[in-house]
UniProtKB/TrEMBL annotation:
NCBIfam families: 2A51
Segments crossing the lipid bilayer: 84-108, 114-135, 147-179, 202-223, 235-253, 273-293, 300-324, 330-350, 380-397
Keywords for the protein's UniProt record, in alphabetical order: Cell membrane, Membrane, Transmembrane, Transmembrane helix
Cell division keyword on record: no
Location of the protein in the cell: Cell membrane
Family from the record: Belongs to the chromate ion transporter (CHR) (TC 2.A.51) family.
UniProt topology in membrane: Multi-pass membrane protein
Main localization (coarse): membrane
InterPro entries given in the database record: Chr_Tranpt_l_chain (IPR014047), Chromate_transpt (IPR003370)
Protein name according to UniProt: Chromate transporter
Amino acid sequence: MKTNSRAAQLIEVLLVSTKLGLTSFGGPTAHLGYFYNEYVHKKKWLDEKSYADLVALCQFLPGPASSQVGIGIGTIRAGVLGGLVAWLGFTLPSVIVLVLFALLLQGYNVSGAGWIHGLKIVAVVIVAQAVLSMGQKLASGRTRATIAALTAVITLLWHTSYTQIVLIVLAGIAGMLIYRHNESLDNTGRTINLTVPVNRRFAISCLGLFFGFLIVLPILRQWTNSEWITMFDSFYRAGALVFGGGHVVLPLLQNEIVPLGWLSKEDFLAGYGVAQAVPGPLFTFAAYLGAMITGIPGAIVATIAIFLPAFLLVIGALPFWYAVRNNSRVQGILFGVNAAVVGILMAALYDPLWISSIVQPVDFALAVVLFLLLQFWKMPPWFVVAIGLIGGYFTSFM
């Protein structure tokens, strides 16, 4: 039966996206498979080529790719409100779980328990797999491997709040110069146009807001010294500067949260480990962090702040995507940025993950077992998290 009214479309989008939010385990790549099966194969809200184009756009933009695809599909189906509803349905289930976990940690003071240490080892394994997988795709070849390695070295040796931003910008410039004459970066050869119910003036306003927040929030942060503005600024910038997947948000948030004393490194990494076991986007890790800092209001602020850039970028970019997607300079920038992202994640694998979690031989032994299960036995992340919890509990007696 065809759904005609906007209200009925919004309800349908909410129900379908909530179902995905409850069942989509396995990270961004798996999410895209779930989306394809539900939105393209079952619901037929868009065809395969249009879906592939939307995925290409969201992988091009900074932010959580799977969430952005969901926002884009909701927007195509039911306008801007449809995009908002699709985001709510996909995001809210994991937000609730992570907030409850944060309240558990605060209420029972279990941060020193062995199973919490097991979660930290899980985080090491998850990021190690991400570095391996992303490195093979985004930092292959001598040039991009060099960009990744230099980024990792500088990130580890030059500790400032702006290091990663500067390195991403420089890598983008390098990519544009190196690959500016490469006409084969995009071999899809498609120019399918999606029907997007967003006018260009509104789209430009969204892009203006995206950059406006990046400029204004740090200024307000300095002028007001408000904890809420500081929190919103930290999570907004983390959401705005993540390229290459949700795992890259780890070093960005760690640099923003831990040095301010809002959260210990141990509690930070424990939450990151739990975030691997819940369905939905990894960016909901922000809800855990916000809840640990200032309770439920903090969870709401952090979640909105970290996802707002993704929403503004998708709505702002959809009407203009086809004008820029085949530009070799733009794609060259992306090549350089993605290589730098691998380097940033590689640095995060060492600091804070490795040095905080692998402190004795038994920790390394558990990490090897977990990596084997995840990478070679293809066990789902929730299963690996469960084994990490059990392993951390028992190794605490050794």
